Amino acid sequence: MTLEEAQQAVDTWIKDVGVRYFSELTNLAILTEEVGEVARIIARRYGDQSFKKSDEEVDLGAEMADVLFVLIALANQTGVNLTEAFAKGMEKRTSRDKDRHQNNPKLR
């Protein structure tokens, strides 16, 4: 699925199943909550925190997908074309950082 297809799928789902978009501020709050859930899993799985019984079976991919869904919803309602925005971001990172990481001794 392309980013464009994902944006269309989220828009269709929201209009058909979700009734309407939440406000941008509500979606920002939901996005923050979803990112927190990803952070909790990563902190326990890859960091120093121990798992709580309720977190042991949580699917990291599903939590990341929740973040992506809300981010796409925000893009849709604010008129952001994620395909174009992502391409521009990759171009910016490539030109800005083309030597930066190659010359970083911490990465060797």
Describe the 3D structure.
- The protein has 108 residues and is mostly helical.
- It has a single domain (1-80), classed as MazG-like (Helix Hairpins, Orthogonal Bundle).
- Helix content is 66%, strand content 0%.
- It has four helices and no strands.
- It has helices at 3-16, 24-45, 60-78, 82-97.
- Helix 1 crosses helix 3 and helix 2 (24-45) packs antiparallel against helix 3 (60-78).
- The longest helix is centred in the first third of the chain and has 22 residues, at 24-45.
- The chain starts with a helix and ends in an 11-residue tail after the last helix.
- The model has no long low-confidence stretch (mean pLDDT 93).
Index terms:
hydrolase activity, Helix Hairpins, single chain, Nucleotide pyrophosphohydrolase, MazG-like_dom, YpjD/YvdC, 0% strand, 66% helix, 108 residues, 4 helices, hydrolase, mainly alpha
Set out the fold topology.
Blueprint: H1 3-16, H2 24-45, H3 60-78, H4 82-97
Pfam families: MazG
Keywords: Hydrolase
Domain NTP pyrophosphohydrolase MazG-like: 23-100
Proportion of beta-strand residues: under 5%
> Which structural class should the secondary elements be placed in?
mainly alpha
Spans of 5+ residues with little confidence (pLDDT < 50)? none
Helix content: 55-70%
Describe, in short, the structure shown.
The chain has 108 residues and is mostly helical. The protein is built from 4 helices and no strands.
